[in-house]
Amino acid sequence: MRVRSLVLLVLGLPAAAAQVAAQDKGAFLVRLGNDTTGVEQFDISRTRAEVIAASRAPRAGLRRATISLTGDWQFSGIDIAALDPSAPGNPPRMTTSAKLLAD
After folding, report:
1. Which domain range does residue 66 map to?
2. Disulfide-capable partner of 73 in 3, 14, 26, 36 (CB 3.0 to 4.6 Å)?
3. Sign for the pseudo-dihedral over CA of 26, 27, 28, 29
């Protein structure tokens, strides 16, 4: 589910980034009723987007995604790290990388 959310973010990022170029930082608070289930923070520049997402359902999780962009807002790669929320300074529990290559 989290991977699908990140993929949707990556696919929608160029269009959103082009429209909000002046607004390069932000955050989302995800709530279910009175219960906060997640927090996402993002920082977008012309060549990179960094997303940090913390969630607590079904268990606590912390993910960092670094999305590489070309100078014209096109996707060129992504690095995702699953961090231990109780020790975010430790090495990631899991990492995944994908790069867009030419044919």
Report:
1. 2-99
2. 14
3. negative
Site of tokens 């980034």: 17
SS3 91: coil
Handedness of CA 87, 91, 93, 97 (dihedral sign): positive
For the segment 12-35, what is each residue's pLDDT rounded down to a tens digit? Answer: 555 555 555 545 899 988 888 888
- Nearest 5°: the CA angle 40, 28, 65 is 25
pLDDT tens digits, 82-100: 999 888 789 999 999 999 9
Say which amino acid occupies 34: N
Indicate the number of domains in the chain. 1
Q: Where are the alpha helices (DSSP H) in 1-103?
A: 2-19
